[in-house]
Amino acid sequence: MDASAYCGRCRTRLEWPDDIADSDEVVCPSCGESAGTFGSLRHDAEQAVLDKINGVIEGRGLK
Ligand SMILES: [Zn+2]
After folding, report:
1. What is the pLDDT tens value at each position of the chain, 63 positions in all?
2. Which of 6, 10, 36, 44 has its CA 20 to 30 A from that of 30?
3. Domain chopping of the chain, boundaries
4. At 25, which helix (H) or strand (E)?
5. CA 6 to chain CA mean position, Å
6. SS3 2
7. How far is the CA of 60 from the centre of ligand 1 (A)?
């Protein structure tokens, strides 16, 4: 999946291997802050996309 996430402490872009599992923890490469599991990051990213789509639809009155 093509998504990006940023460290909550220092805003460094987080990176992870292509074969990372949902249960694996993603850690900031700069400050070492844990960003939680990849599964939770992916869920947040998907939710953000859905919220954005819903906002566009509502903004155009096309419910
Ligand atoms: Zn960081």
Report:
1. 456 889 999 999 999 999 999 999 999 999 999 999 999 999 988 999 999 999 988 887 655
2. 44
3. 1-63
4. strand 25-27
5. 8
6. coil
7. 38
CB-CB contact of 35 with 26 (8 Å): yes
How far is the centre of ligand 1, averaged over its atoms, from the C-alpha of 62 (Å)?
40
C-alpha 28/C-alpha 51 separation (Å) is: 26
Q: Which residue, among 25, 37, 27, has the nearest Cα to 10 in the 3D structure?
A: 27
Q: What size, in residues, is the chain?
A: 63
Task: Quote the ligand 1 centre to 22 CA distance (angstroms).
Answer: 20
Gap from CA of 34 to ligand 1 centroid (Å):
8
Separation of CA 6 and ligand 1 centre (Å) = 8
pTM: 0.71
